[in-house]
Amino acid sequence: MTMFRARLRRLSTISAISGMLAAGGIMTAGSASAAVTPLTVAVSPAHGAQTIGVTANVLATFSLNVTGVDSTSFTLVDVAAGTSVVATVTYDSTTRVAKLDPTSNLAADKQFRATLTSAIRAGSENLVTTTWTFTTGPAPAAMYRWPLVESRGVEPWTIAQVSFNEAVTGVNSATFTITNNSTGAVVPGLVVGSSYDKVWRIYPTANLAEDTWYTVKAVGGVSAIRDLAGNPFSTIQWRFLTGLAPMMSSRNVSTNAVGVPVSTTLDIGFTETIIGMST
After folding, report:
1. What DSSP element (H or E) covers 14?
2. What is the pTM of this model?
3. Is the distance from CB of 42 to CB of 5 less than 8 angstroms?
């Protein structure tokens, strides 16, 4: 929620204070605060808010009771289109809350500008025209990742990929990375977008080390990965283990062999060192 403060000019009160001082009166801190009561307004969605739901209402809560709140003094505009949003505006004098309720859902991934005009008054004082903006969602989401989360036996020549539910921007070698968990080094690679910027891949410039854990990270934020309306993606990361599965390379007893002495010791060779074998 964002709070704005209006400038007030209570001329009659100021004149009264001046008269008091001229007559030798004493003005206390209490009388000063009573003389000029600030009119503030807290708004929701807050100024600059993002990923706002398309069914949201716009609220303005005043510190003083006001009049003049209607569909001409409390408005909402689609910034890109320049069109006003058709809405019902109400004011509750008990809670001092003005509500702008659009007659239909707001468009997704759009920036809107709300305005409270000086037609809104608290007694004899006018509100200073107040405007703020917010952006509707939804935020972009990851629909598919490669390699799969916690996958093992991933080929050293693999790529990394994230597929989003909508086009995104801000994807580059700083926001989309593969890191070697053993060394902490970021893997050099080429970041490429496709499918109208919904699918992004990292092509490492060299094969990854075998039998090594790697972490893929896609960083979201207002200046990182975000949709075209500016809604930030929520950062994700996951790991995978490279290395081809061990294969048997030799054995001293062939398949379906017959007449093998019962005292024969079975010998099996593998392409790499293994663990976990037991009798």
Report:
1. helix 11-22
2. 0.78
3. no
